[in-house]
Specification:
single chain; 335 residues; mainly alpha; Annexin V, domain 1; 3 domains; 21 helices; 0% strand; globular
Length: 335
């Protein structure tokens, strides 16, 4: 049980905490989360089984300690909110949410899109100007945006990604215009501040979540129109081979979350340096078995290898978002 407690990520700990509350209290908390966060925590709650009393007490104790540490006398509401969001979501995502809160606008139409499936979102925005599409996709979670992007006409995708990468703040008036288009009513205020949406990192996050074939096609089109921007996006895209930059603890945690058959398939197309890194972070017996399986496994389709690698990358990003591991390599710097 000690090993299981140590391996709980932030989402699972949140699920345990919510399950200890009454339905009404849990509902009050969930309504303040984004659609993606509700889905993630809800899924963790549905899968939660055999949680010991000791583990529940540990989670509640940690939560109480964190709250007490962050609500001491002299710390204002803004500072408390900033610390709480950074601890829960990480600095980048917290900054975007704080920006939205501080603007004080009501983007009901855009927020509603987060609850729709990709096909429904695509149907709503496919006839809009590429700049409007870019703003919408920059507002969505990266994996959701990637699903929508894949459904758009192939000739539009690269243009939209370039526009996302080139976004440098969005005026509230543009967001209220989108609300008007999506919800058929005007909302928001005229605050002069801009919202932190888009940029090369946002474009790279969406590219990371695309299917490999779509990702390659879009990058080729971007290179034709703006080679410098394409290089900037590529530098931020985290690839499977970049997993070799993980520290040993992070690699071990990732390997615990990856099924053996998926890892075997993914390593068929991996660099030797990454294979060595993975073998190093496994028990000697497990490493030898994996090496034998790799040697004995026959040819496999490139598409299957890429799909397996994509799945492992998605797992790595989820663990990183929960603060369980630290992604090194492209796009991340540590001191």
């Amino acid at each position: 049980m000690v090993e299981r407690e140590a391996s709980r990520n932030g989402t699972e700990r949140a699920a345990i905490l919510l399950l200890t509350l009454g339905e009404g209290e849990a509902a009050q908390i969930l309504k303040h989360m984004s659609a993606k966060e509700v889905q993630r925590v809800g899924s963790a709650m549905a899968k939660m089984k055999n949680v010991s009393r000791a583990e529940v007490e540990k989670v509640v104790s940690e939560f109480t300690t964190n709250v007490e540490a962050q609500t001491s006398v002299g710390v204002g509401a803004d500072e408390f909110l900033r610390k709480a969001l950074v601890n829960a979501l990480g600095a980048d995502k917290a900054a975007a949410i704080i920006d939205r809160i501080s603007i004080g606008r009501s983007t009901k139409g855009l927020e509603a899109l987060k609850w729709l499936d990709a096909r429904a979102v695509c149907e709503l925005i496919r006839l809009e100007h590429p700049q409007m599409i870019a703003i919408v996709l920059a507002y969505l979670e990266a994996d959701h945006a990637a699903e929508v992007l894949a459904l758009l006409p192939s000739g539009v995708r690269a243009d939209v990604v370039v526009r996302i990468a080139s976004l440098d703040g969005v005026q509230p008036s543009a967001l209220t215009e989108l609300d008007d288009i999506i919800e058929k009513q005007f909302s928001g205020n005229g605050a002069a501040k801009t919202s932190v949406l888009g940029g090369p990192k946002a474009a790279a996050d969406i590219m990371n979540a695309l299917e490999p074939s779509h990702e390659s096609a879009v990058m080729e089109q971007i290179k034709k129109s703006d080679e410098a921007l394409a290089q900037l996006i590529e530098d931020l895209v985290f690839t499977f081979d970049d997993l070799g930059g993980l520290d040993d603890r992070s690699m071990q945690e990732l390997l615990r979350q990856v099924p053996g058959d998926g890892l075997l398939l993914a390593l068929k197309g991996a660099e030797d340096s990454l294979k060595d890194k993975i073998f190093k972070n496994m028990s000697q017996r497990a490493a030898e078995m994996l090496k034998d399986d790799l040697e004995s496994k026959g040819p496999v389709r490139v598409a299957d290898v890429e799909a397996a690698q994509k799945t492992i990358l998605q797992t790595a990003r989820k663990l990183a978002a929960a603060g369980t591991i630290a992604l090194g390599g492209k796009g991340d710097q540590y001191v």
